[in-house]
Amino acid sequence: MDERRAVKVSKYLSKHLRHQPERIGLTLDEGGWVEIDTLLAAVESRGFRLTREELDHVVATNDKQRFAVEGTRIRASQGHSVDVDLGLARATPPPYLYHGTVAPYLDAIRAEGLRPMDRHDVHLSADRETATRVGARRGRPVVLSVDTGAMHRDGHVFQVSANGVWLTRSVPARYLRFPAAH
Predict the structure, then answer these.
(1) Nearest to 133 by CA among 42, 52, 63, 61
(2) Domain boundaries 97-177, CATH class
(3) How far is it, in rounded angstroms, from Cα 174 to Cα 28?
(4) Which are the contacts of 146, defined by CB distance < 8 A and separation ≥ 6?
(5) Closest Cα partner for 143 from 93, 91, 178?
(6) For residue range 78-109, what is the model confidence (pLDDT) as tens digits?
(7) pLDDT tens for each residue of 61-72
(8) Which three-class secondary structure state does DSSP give residue 124?
(9) Which fold has domain 3-76?
(10) Which of 161, 156, 159, 158 lies closest to 172, judged by CA?
(11) Is the pTM higher than 0.85?
């Protein structure tokens, strides 16, 4: 499978396993899971050709490990806007995590902190490099440091997804460290 096709499949799966399953006739269970055969039939019925081999390739090679397969089921690892319970346990974060964004959002972030927007949680990265890649999807990236050690001590809850993305409901501005140039 060429890279363009893999990206197209990944985006299609993300859209329907995270945000709009009903659009292709899917019903996710409470944990966000759907039978792979059901997914493949739904995709085909909507005119999007996808083989099991292509699906397996995208799941195995996706650089962010966006999807999880368990037996005969698949789900998105995190980032849902539909109501699901990923069943993630609370986790103790490292002292600092990182969030990638772009300069036009900084004023709102300074005023309101980080909010989940259309997702259930704010996504944080374990390292600056990953946060830089996340921010670069929207333009020139700005990486914010998040004092997650202090947040945790103050009672904020953290979880970590199977692919290493840290999740929390929100990040108040007082826990954010902005780069000096911004």
Answers:
(1) 63
(2) alpha beta
(3) 37
(4) 96, 97, 98, 99, 114, 124, 171, 175, 176, 177
(5) 178
(6) 888 898 988 899 999 999 999 999 999 999 99
(7) 987 889 999 999
(8) strand
(9) Arc Repressor Mutant, subunit A (1.10.10)
(10) 156
(11) no
